[in-house]
Amino acid sequence: MKGDLERGKIESDIRRIMCNEAGKEIRLRAKEFKERAGLCLEEGGASCQSLEELVVSGNQFSY
């Protein structure tokens, strides 16, 4: 019984995401998030800069 309820919920959520206007907005936001995350990981991006700063500060304590 519980599995049937979960399947029904999953199915309705997937239909909502794939088939209606609210789903279009969800997909658009997911795409934007993916693009922003990619920028952070590129050379010169926020994550890359943070890692470089960590290495530089770590080198200051090297012997």
TrEMBL record:
One MF annotation (Gene Ontology) recorded for this entry: transferase activity
Keywords, in A-Z order: Transferase
Domain of life where this protein originates: Eukaryota
Gene3D superfamilies according to UniProt: Glycogen Phosphorylase B
UniProt-recorded name of the protein: UDP-glucuronosyl/UDP-glucosyltransferase
